[in-house]
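FORM 7B: Structural annotation worksheet

SECTION A. Query
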Amino acid sequence: MIAEAAAGSIKLFLLVLILNNFACKIILIIQISRLSSAGFIFSFGIE
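SECTION B. Predicted structure
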């Protein structure tokens, strides 16, 4: 019973870690795309 509960909490913890990592990657991609698009507009504004 205790082992099952521990296994369940470990699975939940791993799931949270995976989702958190995934969310961080998505946020990072969004930030990079915003920066690159801003840089793109900026470079066009100079020319």
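SECTION C. Observations
The chain is about 95% helix and 0% strand. The chain has one domain: 1-47.

SECTION D. Sign-off
Analyst initials: ____
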